[in-house]
Amino acid sequence: MRRRGCMSTLVIFVLLALLCCGSIWLIGLPRARDTVSDRISNGLSTQIADQLGGVTLQPGEHTLSVSGLQQQMQDAGIFGNDVELRVSVSPAGLFFSFDTNGQTIGYTGTPAVEDGKLVIEYLESDNDVLGFLLPPDKLAGALERGVNTYVSAQGQQMQDLTLGADVITFVTVST
User: Fold this and answer.
1) Range of the domain at 125
2) What is the pTM of this model?
């Protein structure tokens, strides 16, 4: 009789543990991804506005300093003090990485303009395990949303985009 009671308790404990793990997997992970994505999107939009003068975006050519954006986002503490952000750009594409506690996750992709909006094409992670926590499509969406939200709020849309050494130059037109 005692063995059945111990076995029942063990089975209940295992089921509760599985329920907790399932809850974290189904609820916690998506919420964490959304939080990081929202921080990136909002932070990027704010820092682009600051770098471009913060008032009204006029139609024409605009240049962003990528190292300036990186420093502004780091100084604003968008990712906290224990996460180091690295962003670089060259004519070949965009590199975006996070370093925390000795772990690095990097992403590479190609920004382009489609239908008047920024799109990040071919974004890939260099770390499959950590890339699972923040999938490339989630990061691409955050980057696109951050830029497109700012540009569309100014009554503009993107017409062209050029990558240079540490700069992104884009052309906007009125909508």
Assistant:
1) 2-174
2) 0.78
